[in-house]
Amino acid sequence: LGDGQVMTELYVDLFKDALAQLSEEEPRWLQVDPRQVANATLDNLFFYTPFVSFALYTLFGVAWMAYAEKLTLVVRIRYIYALLIPATLFMLIATLATAILPRSLAGLVSFISLFGSSLVVALTAYFGAYPEIESRGGKLMRSITLGFALIGVMMIATTIALIIGTYLAIDTAFEATTPI
Predict the structure, then answer these.
(1) Count of beta carbons in the 10 Å neighbourhood of residue 157
(2) pLDDT value, residue 51
(3) What is the C-alpha separation between 70 and 56, in angstroms, rounded?
């Protein structure tokens, strides 16, 4: 990501609006460069997302017990991470697509990537994670639930990483404008 990319420009616009509102109460916010905050936020987001995701996916693997047979903790966590491999590949391709698509399609691409990765997880789970379940309906419902649950965990992890990244970027930018 860099200047001129769709995601960067979306964040620049977001921070322009936020900084304009903040500057009504504290004029020093006018000195903060929204592009610098956007770039720092995205850098922080991409740094913290893997750590937060790892922790939340591991906790999810500990909690997810919807298997037809009793599995050990390590096997449950391993199943969750195995399901994430195809979804991660799908999300990577979708994210790279945002670089070449017009900015007006960013929301649509985000929706398609979330729904598509849920579908990829559900299909992977249906054909691999539940071989011991005979009922197609039971297997389908567990797979769909797991697909949407994992995407929910991913959204929570990304939101937490974004909050951390934004806080650090804005704190650093504001400190840079504070006289010593």
Answers:
(1) 21
(2) 96
(3) 22
Q: In the predicted model, is pLDDT for residue 4 greater than 60?
A: no
For residue 144, give the 3-state DSSP assignment.
helix
| Tokens coding 159 | 């939101």
CA distance 177 to 84: 42
pLDDT of 137 > 80? The answer is: yes
**Residue type at 129 in one-letter notation:** A
**76 and 62 Cβ atoms separated by less than 8 Å:** yes
Distance CA 126, CA 131 (A): 8
pLDDT at 173 (0 to 100): 81
Residue 50 makes CB contacts below 8 A (sequence gap 6+) with none
Residue 157 has pLDDT above 90, yes or no: yes
Q: How far apart are CA 88 and CA 25, in angstroms?
A: 42
d(CA 76, CA 63): 9
Closest CA to 5 of 141, 112, 111, 98: 98
**Two tokens at 79?**
């199943």
Which one has a higher pLDDT value, 46 or 177?
46
Q: What does the alpha-carbon distance between residue 9 and residue 113 come to, in Å, rounded to a whole number?
A: 19
Angle between helices 73-97 and 136-177 (to 10 degrees): 60
Share of the chain above pLDDT 70, in %: 93
